[in-house]
Specification:
Elements: E1 6-18, E2 21-33, E3 38-43, H1 49-52, E4 61-65, E5 70-74, E6 76-82, H2 97-110, H3 115-131, E7 134-140, H4 145-158, E8 161-165, E9 167-168, H5 181-195, E10 202-204, E11 207-208, H6 216-229, E12 233-237, H7 241-250, H8 257-263, E13 273-277, H9 283-291, E14 295-298, H10 300-305, H11 313-318, E15 323-325, H12 337-357, H13 369-383, E16 401-405, H14 421-431, E17 437-442, E18 445-448
Parallel strand pairs: 1-4, 1-5, 6-7, 7-8, 8-10, 9-11, 12-13, 13-14, 14-15
Antiparallel strand pairs: 1-2, 2-3, 5-16, 16-17, 17-18
Helix pairs in contact: 3-4, 4-5, 5-6, 8-9, 12-13
Bound molecules: guanine and fe (iii) ion (FE).
């Protein structure tokens, strides 16, 4: 018997074509090459799948006909999460950023000097993210080289697509959790060299924590490393008022917080640069992001939880800045992109009320389903520079996908029978959970799923 080399899915296929176009394909046929995990064909309006496949030898493919309450969605892309912080997600949520970092974050992150701690915690967090449908994640780890390598190893074992950052901190940090400038740069180089050969699913990302904890020498050195190895750069920007004031006082030569990163070469050292939060920014700063093709990660749960503020994402979208969503675990307490979508929806509602009631702008538009799905998938892909690889189901892209089944045994969603496909999608987006995800695929490999029988 010939080995099956193709997986074929027949049924409802939903994906974003752009910020304003959500395509719902009702009788879609999607063919995945099992060896490469790449989408070989996507066909629309297929009334008979066997007919559509007649050019193929039937022994070479496995056909999965999806039921009316099942559909495929592109995997979720979390553009900003802190892997070590998962262990205390939900604790200390009454504090604001700088106090929260000192009280909760730095003591726990410093414990990742132990690779045992890293192995135990990172296995949990990566598994949890995959179960929740996060097929790609951009991670912050800690300052510790060995623990960062452990995170890379675990991600590879579990099969997630990921950007992984060794965090850099050489000033304004507690004495138990700080690096010497040159050691920080050397460890970053070692981490990049360790991780690059592990490709193509795992990519190192240069990760200065934020300007407060990075000297000018360190930031310039990190820019040089990103440019030498052609790797992406991620950090935090304009999250909280106290943070912004302190940051600007440390770098008085720069025009504003955004200017500090630009002045240290971080916006031009890499093709792919993205900033988490960007809650409080003036027009000049947004223009600087746009000019340098720098994207943002919108972390709405975190911005509420740490009382940082409510980011007006619409403003960035209208300025043409790339936007994706981030959980920011554990500034955000939820390790789920479904939560990131819902928090973004609420943040957008708050902005709508502010525009309507305070700014006399009643035409402000809330983020709708089409935009929310885009931000959680294609938007994130663009922020990470992966728009040619993932984000939707175009032919030639990797099959990173969620097989949603609203009828699974422990489904949190009730389907009544009257729903059209948009309403089924909305039931999933607003009330679904990991118990709605029968199968989660990364590059064609099933990496998680609540279905009792793997596909
Ligand atoms: N700014 C600097 N470090 C952090 C962090 O760990 N979390 C958040 N939310 N903001 C930061
Ligand atoms: Fe963060």
């Amino acid at each position: 018997m010939t080995a099956k080399t193709l997986s074929v899915f027949y049924g409802t296929i939903i994906h974003s074509q752009s910020l304003t176009e959500l395509e719902i394909i009702e009788n879609g046929l999607l063919i995945v090459d099992r060896t490469s995990g790449v989408i070989q064909r996507l066909e629309r309006n297929v009334s008979n799948p066997e007919d559509a496949l007649k050019d193929l030898d039937a022994s070479t493919y496995e056909l999965h006909k999806m039921s009316p309450h099942q559909f495929l969605l592109p995997g979720f892309i979390d553009t900003h999460a802190h892997a070590p912080q998962y262990v205390f997600a939900g604790s200390g949520m009454e504090l604001q950023l700088l106090d929260w970092l000192n009280a909760n974050v730095f003591p726990v992150e410093s414990s990742f000097a132990s690779t045992d701690m890293a192995r135990k915690s990172y296995t949990k967090v990566v598994s949890r993210f995959l179960r929740n449908g996060t097929t790609t994640c951009s991670w912050f780890a800690t300052i510790h080289l060995e623990a960062c390598k452990v995170l890379v190893d675990i991600i590879r074992e579990l099969g997630q697509r990921a950007y992984v950052g060794k965090v850099n901190m050489d000033q304004n940090s507690p004495d138990f959790y700080v690096e010497k400038t040159q050691e920080s740069l050397d460890a970053t180089r070692a981490f990049i060299e360790y991780t690059l050969p592990h490709g193509p699913l795992v990519t190192p990302v240069v990760t200065p924590r934020f300007a407060i904890t990075c000297s000018s020498t360190l930031m310039k050195g990190l820019s040089a490393l990103a440019s030498e190895y052609k790797v992406p750069i991620q950090t935090h920007l304009c999250e909280n008022h106290n943070e912004i004031n302190f940051t600007c006082s440390l770098f008085p030569d720069s025009k504003h917080y955004t200017g500090i990163y630009h002045d240290h070469g971080l916006f031009t050292a890499s093709e792919n640069v993205y900033m988490a939060h960007c809650v409080h920014m003036d027009d000049d700063e947004i223009a600087l992001l746009k000019e340098n093709n720098v994207g943002i990660s919108h972390c709405a749960n975190s911005n509420f939880s740490l009382q940082s503020g409510v980011c007006d994402v619409r403003r960035f979208l209208e300025s043409g800045v790339k936007v994706g969503l981030g959980t920011d675990v554990a500034g955000g307490y939820a390790p789920s992109m479904l939560d990131a979508v819902r928090s973004s929806f609420f943040a957008s509602k708050v902005q709508l009320m502010r525009h309507r009631d305070e700014l006399n702008k009643p035409d402000y538009k809330v983020l709708g389903t089409t935009e929310l799905v885009y931000l959680a998938t294609m938007g994130g892909a663009r922020v990470l520079g992966l728009q040619d690889t993932i984000g939707n189901f175009e032919q030639g892209k990797a099959f990173d996908a969620l097989f949603v089944d609203l009828d699974l045994a422990n489904s949190p969603v009730d389907v009544m029978g009257h729903e059209n496909k948009t309403q089924l999608l909305e039931k999933f987006i607003f009330n679904g959970s990991d118990q709605s995800l029968a199968h989660v695929f990364v590059q064609g490999r099933r990496v998680a799923g609540a279905a009792s029988v793997p596909l």
